[in-house]
């Protein structure tokens, strides 16, 4: 494989890069700071972006930044989530069995979250991923879950994470006004610019342990054009280019190699 050819210690452009070694752009740092603020004050936050722009990576980073001694992060990702399964999933992470009726499960969840806050002195952060797939009834349930003491306090921080359509095709509509009014923070993740793309590539190559240049500046420029600054696409283009360079026994990848890979090996993903 190309790791051996380039004398790498770690595979650079995968989803398995340790969170502490991930590249953090100014946009990601800003989003992390805002989410930390939301967690501290038990706010309702929404994170949206186009596919591949780093939503899941952001949550991994947030989990690493919060610290287990002060926070309890609950995470669910289920495109067919219903109130019953919501409470079952959250209670399961708390080590509890759900009740037969969802209303009873909700009260048990609220009681346990209150205990975590008062007895363990931890703040609870609930992250629901793939939230753009949630129906209106499910989003309404979240609104009621957040405010259960005469609409005066929130028992936890809630973070909805989803594709751009979560906001554009749902939350911004009139039918979702009651939910939208509860949102304290709306975070939109954008694409990387040209300079950030170069830093992203350099960061991942540094993680690989390679001690020499692999991509020329022209290659990085081409990677940026092809990927449009979307981290997931940067990973794909870089990985395919490294594989091709290895096959060709070339230790330096230029823009022509990147373009060849895009034209011949990147079906259905780049322009």
Overview of the molecule:
The chain is built from twelve helices and five strands. It has 271 residues and is α/β, with parallel strands linked by helices. The chain has a five-stranded parallel β-sheet with strand order 2-3-4-1-5, sandwiched between helices. β3, α6 and β4 form a beta-alpha-beta unit.
Quickly give the structural class: alpha/beta
Order of helices and strands: HHEHEHHEHEHHEHHHH
In the sheet with the most strands, the strands line up as: 2-3-4-1-5
Helix content: 40-55%
Strand fraction? 5-15%
The Rg value, from CA coordinates, equals: 22 Å
Averaged pLDDT: 90
Low-confidence sequence ranges: none
**Main beta sheet, described?**
5 strands, parallel
DSSP, total strands: 5
Shape: elongated
Instruction: Enumerate how many helices there are, as a single number.
Output: 12
Give the oligomeric state of the chains in this entry, treating copies of one chain as homo and distinct chains as hetero: single chain
